[in-house]
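tool=predict chain=A
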Amino acid sequence: MELLQEGLKLMVVGMGVVFLFLALMVVIMTGMAKVLAPYAKLLDKPVDKPQRKPAKKPAAASGDDAAKAAAAVAAVHMHRNKK
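tool=predict ok
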């Protein structure tokens, strides 16, 4: 029973230390953000990506579609007859 109590104490102390470290880190980072905010304008501004225009769908020739369909049918036919 004594070993279990020591384990619980160690767990609580360890979790407390981790919690305090994380809380301190948040406080320090928030403070640094406020201190360094006036200097943010000195940094280079990120380059905006150029806006892409939506691609226009080319007017498909009906012969082109028919040729593709014929090629697909021929490929399936050859695959099925191959043994």
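The mean pLDDT is 87. DSSP finds two helices and no strands in the chain.
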